[in-house]
# Entry
Amino acid sequence: MKGTRMDLCMGHGDGSKRMNRYWIGMAIGCVLLVLTLGAAPAQADWPRIIASKDGTPISYEIYGAGEPTLVFVHGWSCDARYWRAQLKYFSKHHRVAALDLAGHGHSGATRSRYTMRAFGEDVRAVTAATGSPSVILIGHSMGGSVIAEAARLMPNRVIGLIGIDTLENIEYPLTREELDMMIAPLEKDFRTGSREFIASMLSPNTDAQLREWILADVSAAPPAVALSAMTEMMSQYITGEAARIFEEIPIPVITVNGDLWPINHAANRRHMFSYDAIVLKDADHFLMMNRSSEFNPALKKAIDTISKKRAP
# Structure
């Protein structure tokens, strides 16, 4: 009798032909599945490396799809992990990239000076790697200065800047003496000085575990990198470059800020193509981490505003 269970198992009769076709089909399906899993999209969650202009390897990650692309730039002595509450949220509708600036996270640390211009080159390298013609740069704290430099390097690609608790007053009249006083505790004892420096920017209402994680992480940064980056960033306020740079980038700027420090709208608008701010009440410097449920919709509003301004 043909077509019995024994025929199928032993490979006899019409049933064996059907089974042969079945197994051939399964084999082809498995091969296609392996090829699909091995394609680039499946690797999108893994960190990648690209060389900055000076050859420094820069670590970055890309998620999602959709324009404009969003490039997230961390702040002083931080890294891409500080955006963990934003990447999944925004990658549903946008291509999202997050990087570790040179000297931070998993990127190279061989520079003698960590200038905002060189950090801008790091951002340009990663932005170019996304292949996107339309990009919004998002920078936290020191990242606000970095994305301004990056935008100057990419005049035809960046459509807007969003600063996160930064750029409150780009005309701030800092003196060399004030900068020296700011740097002195960090030079004396970086771990202790940086903890005290960052603690002043955190709300007492911040989750205790998150608070300690931020303080421990920032204070573990390489002192030479941190001191150089701080000096280079704040020196732009002494020279006036912090304001002048915006006169070379005719694109809209929006900030999403906590209310720790006042915002000088008039000073910013004297130099920026356009400037607006979204302020979250009682939020601190790390609002994207400890107030993400309110922060993400505020950032989305800023992104949508810039996108509409760019739309034909």
